[in-house]
Amino acid sequence: MAHAVKALFPEAKLAIGPATEDGFYYDFDLDRTFSPEDLHLIEEKMSEIVRQNTPFVKKVVSRQEAIDFFERSGEPYKVELLREIPDEEVSLYEEGGFVDLCRGPHIRSTGQIVAFKLLSVAGAYWRGNEKNRMLQRIYGTSFPDKKALSDYLAYLEEVKKRDHRKLGKDLDLFSTSDEIGAGLVIWHPNGALIRRAIEDFWLREHHRAGYKILYTPHIAKLNLWATSGHLDFYRENMYSPMEIEGVDYEIKPMNCPFHIHVYKHTLRSYKELPMRFAELGTVYRYERSGVLHGLLRVRGFTQDDAHIFCREDQIEDEILAVLDFTLFVLKTFGFERYDIHLSTRPEKYVGTLEHWESATNALKRALEIKGLSFDVDPGEGVFYGPKIDIKVKDSLNRPWQCSTIQVDFNNPERFALDYRGSDGNEHRPIMIHRALMGSLERFFGILIEHYAGAFPVWLAPVQVKILTIAERHADYAMHLLRTIAGHDIRVEADIENEKIGYKIRHATMMKVPYLVIIGDKEVSDRSVTVRKRSGENIGPLSIDEFVGVVKEKIDKKSLEL
Ligand code: ZN
């Protein structure tokens, strides 16, 4: 590609051009902006170079020779890179008269390239630094055969269609705005209804699983974060403190210290353990504006957080219960494939080796008992304890980090937690941090993409939409609306004087699971005819029958219509 660009635009300066996980890119410095037509021309030139089947020839030269060469060729970015390479010798690759600095290896000749496509152009600062010059980055991809390329392009189309930022706008679910502040999410009514359904489910299941629910403040004295250790190891993710009557306060990056406070509130006995505190706790973390991305990377988000305080002999049972709980919750949302990672003791750690070993074994045993396959990431644990991370695979098989279960030896020590044991002595409890969905914002983003906005009935903001064919059907439609709403089903009616085709198109675009279409026949029979989101029709049904169908789907949290 770089050869083709130089052939077409000799004044373009070459910066860097690495391979990436799913393709490649190259950064160019050029005064004109690459247009889609330019990309097309570049592709044609690339095809020409491929047809010529010219060999790639490697040449090892001294660094100074390379610098001289690129200086003569008018490539200042290459010269800058070379000046920082410590090696005495570097390799150049030459192909059809085009020379580039490259470590290699390369294919033998351009004829080996079978299928490729240039995908997009984006601005990119030289060396990723916003103080430097903005370059143009051309992205492309290549595959060993045409079928694999067309499959990949179809996959990219699907990814684009499912983009939660686009669907979030189309379905009026949420927004972020510069006026409010980047990375701060506003949940619109439709998104808020979904969040409410998730939270109701979360609450009920936590009650059932023996958790106590907490609410805690959004700010606290900065000193609290010194005790917890966050000021030492997490400061770059925290915002600047604010002053209240001469004392520094901090907006919370974590919920843990508050839950610890509840534990510490009175003297605890071994009989009270395990204690499980859960909270939908909103935290704020500093992320650079460049990395913010829709709902997936934000500055304020709500964790489905919980902390379990237990005795050492209870770790395994607790981990097992958390694991069961996690998989149940994920399955309810339609996620049944996972990548699971067990991260073990890093080089820098707190706690005793004995503790680490018993906790790591407990995590491992729990995974084995559940028959879950997992990868061990040696040394990847947090300094305060080992952890299990679960990445769910979505409908496009993309992994997303959601759930985490972390054992913590640090906080009980720092906050001097204890309990009175059966032996009458004071003991230190173990603390487990866990989040099932991770953050509600991020999880919502993943759900939107997983379902492409067509949510299961229990989550759909509008579950049933009543559409009238003519104005004379409005009375029956309103009667239906009241009846269905009386069963706690989220229902709306469209009795506007519009063509039924238009009404159906609009409701279909909004991905409403059930459309109830009312005409003369339905009014005279007191029945309903239902069109599912999938396009399948059911009915005529009596109103009760239809309500029964919808209620069952909601109650069972069915993923099918
Ligand atoms: Zn925590």
Topology (elements, then pairings):
Elements: H1 2-8, E1 13-14, E2 19-20, E3 23-29, H2 36-52, E4 57-62, H3 63-72, H4 76-84, E5 89-95, E6 98-101, E7 115-125, E8 134-143, H5 146-161, H6 164-170, E9 174-175, E10 186-187, H7 189-208, E11 212-213, E12 219-221, H8 222-227, H9 230-233, E13 242-244, E14 247-251, H10 256-264, E15 268-269, E16 275-284, E17 300-310, H11 315-332, E18 338-343, H12 353-369, E19 375-377, E20 387-393, E21 399-408, H13 410-414, E22 419-420, E23 426-427, E24 430-439, H14 440-451, E25 464-468, H15 474-485, E26 491-494, H16 500-509, E27 514-518, H17 520-525, E28 527-532, E29 537-542, H18 543-555
Parallel strand pairs: 11-16, 15-22, 18-19, 25-26, 25-27
Antiparallel strand pairs: 1-3, 2-3, 3-8, 4-5, 5-6, 7-8, 9-10, 12-14, 13-14, 16-17, 17-24, 18-20, 20-21, 21-24, 22-23, 27-28, 28-29
Bound molecules: zinc ion (ZN).
The site of zinc ion has 4 residues, from loops.
